[in-house]
Amino acid sequence: MNQVVIGLIIINVLVSLKGFSDRLFFERYKFQIGPILQGQQIRMLTSGFLHVDQAHLFFNMFALYIFSDSVIDHLGVLKFVIIYLGSLLAGSTLALSFHKNQPYYSAVGASGAVMGVIYAGIMLNPDMRLSFIFFPFFAIPGYVFGVGYLLYSIYGMKKQLGNIGHSAHLGGAVGGFVLTLALYPELFMLNRTIIIILAVPIILMFVFKDKLINK
Fold first, then answer.
1. How many angstroms separate the CA atoms of 26 and 22, rounded?
2. In sequence order, which residues have a C-beta less than 8 Å from that of residue 139 and are 6 or more positions away?
3. Transmembrane ranges (predicted)?
């Protein structure tokens, strides 16, 4: 595993552990609409290193571990870091846009950043197949997972399913999609079909944005 990835995991673990044990620290740096609109934009970054509990932290870091090396192998360390941090901020930006009239809306987690890395991995590896812990012998194409997850997140955001920051997940995926194309434009020619397939739900999300927002 690349040293930069190890470093990101260590930072996530240390910041999250501090948040688990120090409620004031957690409240000060979590994503929350009201304080951000009052000038505390740093929360849009710091919230991406906090987590709700150990399970939340583990699954995000495990996904980062699984997908990061593939992205680094194709694009290098610097571009990987740009995708990670850019997707984190894209997730926070979309959440802010969708929930700007909900001052008490809050969220934490690296999910936006990790979703950006996952989408980068899918775009760079169109033949990727994903299996799941409970169904190790059943694998689905990566792009099917990508489209399915986007659609689920759009539905989950509209219906406010669970205690999940669906808008941050969506923003992270969009960030990973856009940044990967910007950093590796050859994908337009190499994997054009996959790019179009992944772009459709993103376009639909922005077209119907007003219908997704719970005002």
1. 6
2. 129, 130, 131
3. 6-26, 47-68, 80-98, 105-124, 130-152, 164-184, 190-208
Q: Please give the residue range of the domain that contains residue 152.
A: 3-212
Does residue 137 register a pLDDT over 80?
no
Q: For the packed helices 3-21 and 54-75, what is the interaxial angle rounded to 10 degrees?
A: 160
The whole-number pLDDT of residue 61 equals 94
CA distance 86 to 29: 18
Render pLDDT for 8-53 as a digit per residue (tens, 0 to 9).
999 999 999 999 999 999 999 999 999 999 999 999 999 999 998 9
Q: Number of structural domains, the chain?
A: 1
Distance (Å, whole) CA 67 – CA 65: 6
Tell me which residue of 190, 194, 85, 180 sits closest to 147, measured CA to CA: 194
Count of residues for the chain? 215
CA–CA dist 49, 116 (Å, integer)? 15
User: What is the model's pLDDT at position 214?
Assistant: 55
Q: Is the distance from CB of 148 to CB of 197 less than 8 angstroms? A: no
CATH number at residue 69: 1.20.1540.10
Segments in 76-137 forming alpha helices (H): 77-98, 111-124
